[in-house]
Amino acid sequence: MAAVVALAVAAGPSGAQAQANDTTAAHLALATALRDPTRANDVLVVLRSVEDADTLPLLRAAAGSSRRERRLFAVRGLRNIDAPTATEALMERLRNDPEAPIRVEAMLALVERKATTNEGLTGALRDADEAVQCIAARELVRQGRGKAAVEALVKLANSQDIGTAVMARLALTAAGHRQDIEAIRSVLTGPKASEAVRLVVLEQIDEDAIRAAAPLARALTAADQPAPVRLRAFRALAAVSPDTPALMVEAIESSRAVGLSVRLLRVLADTEGPAEPLGRLAQGQGATAALARFELARVAGGPTAADAAKRALALEHPVVIEYILARAAQAVEADAGKATWYADPLLAIIESLPKGGRRIGAEHYRAARAATLLGDLGTPEALEGLRRLLSEDYSTRVRAVAAGLLKTGNREAAQLLRPLLTSPYEELHADAMLALGRFGDPKALEAMREVIAHPDRHQPALVALSSWRVLKAAGTAEAAARSLAPLVK
């Protein structure tokens, strides 16, 4: 028996003890960084980016910080986590934060997640800030409780702030109180209304489906309006008027701006019964025509749709590539099993990058998004294409693929990065380590322990994320976040 004990001691700590040592080191690394004013923000940025409910104790602590910018940062992080405690923290900020922009952010987040209460909304009508009042009043109208908001909206309609006044008048219109739409149009198309105000008002028309405001939206589709306003106006008009497709076709055919034409095509394609106007546009030449043909083929999917996508991508226009990526992301999220035909076009996006490139540009970020989608698709074709790309000599193309797979939720796709754990290139090694560590890969966790043990050799963000991954693998992340929360000031 003594010999067995001696052998165990010689072999080092037990599995449980080793794991405890790992989590202690990870916890200490995060605590040290949070105590350091020069590194604390890096840690919080990293932990917010993982959008993990286990980080809530830290985000809640940041939301109660004495520092305005940290509270705003935390509220934006809470907005991305769907958990009751996140909702509670947002409600607390709405009730008690002294800064109006933070209360507005909290109010928007609560509306977005449909977490408002009657008491909360009526209380927000008494907020000192008009923006908070206006958001609350709009939500009451949306919920069919417009009577409770009328008094506040009438007051807000006379605000000195143009945006608040116009939004209040439109909310009154939505509540069944007739307003002078022509007068509102004069204000919005006049010199005092900024582009930002026009965009917010158009969003309101769209989201609240205010049919009486169709003339207002149509006025803002005019060619003399900035492109973002025109695009938003057509989207709003499509939500409230059946005549919009014909108007969009005219705007697309008369526009010389490819970016605007392509984005208008997306709005057109998302309307009901777009086949006829798309067919008309498909007869033309250029990016818009190629994407119109893609849209017509996309309905059925399969090889024909894949070929149409690749023909559009052959134009090598960034806006076209963004369009195909957006459609692919939408399809994969809805049902990856029905989106398998996107594999070939997505691989084509990556393969369009030069093999020996050394400069990182916008095209590499698009390629990384394509790699993420291919990983999430997880078909044999997608995985084999990714494996082939990763086996190439070091280049920015390989970096883009590795960076994209860092974000995949597919364990099998992440495993493609395993050979890069021994890469001499730090960024490839880090991507492989973090991607595999997400799934508890032993080799990746071993590499993370090395990073944690030598924080001076690595970027603070990498140390923080490695520490978090180790804590997640051990199942102690939420407990660690609770114990670290008092360090967030």
Give a quick set of tags describing it.
single chain, 489 residues, mainly alpha, 0% strand, flat, disordered N terminus
Portion of residues in beta strands equals under 5%
Low-confidence stretches: 1-12
| Average pLDDT level | 93
Per DSSP E runs of 2 or more residues, the count of β-strands stands at: 0
Shape call: flat
How far the N terminus sits from the C terminus, by CA atoms, comes to: 53 Å
Report on this structure:
By secondary structure, the protein is mainly alpha-helical. It has helices spanning 2-11, 15-35, 40-49, 56-63, 68-78, 84-96, 100-112, 118-124, 130-142, 150-156, 162-174, 181-188, 195-208, 214-219, 227-240, 244-254, 258-269, 275-282, 286-298, 302-313, 318-335, 343-351, 362-377, 380-390, 396-405, 411-414, 426-437, 442-453, 460-474, 477-484. It has 30 helices and no strands. The longest helix is centred in the N-terminal third of the chain and has 21 residues, at 15-35. The two termini are 53 Å apart.
Short description:
With 489 residues, the protein is an all-alpha fold.
What order do the helices and strands come in, and which of them pair?
Blueprint: H1 2-11, H2 15-35, H3 40-49, H4 56-63, H5 68-78, H6 84-96, H7 100-112, H8 118-124, H9 130-142, H10 150-156, H11 162-174, H12 181-188, H13 195-208, H14 214-219, H15 227-240, H16 244-254, H17 258-269, H18 275-282, H19 286-298, H20 302-313, H21 318-335, H22 343-351, H23 362-377, H24 380-390, H25 396-405, H26 411-414, H27 426-437, H28 442-453, H29 460-474, H30 477-484
Helix pairs in contact: 2-3, 2-29, 3-29, 4-5, 5-7, 6-7, 7-9, 8-9, 9-10, 9-11, 10-11, 11-12, 11-13, 13-15, 15-17, 16-17, 16-18, 17-19, 18-19, 19-20, 20-22, 21-23, 22-23, 22-24, 23-25, 25-27, 27-28, 28-29
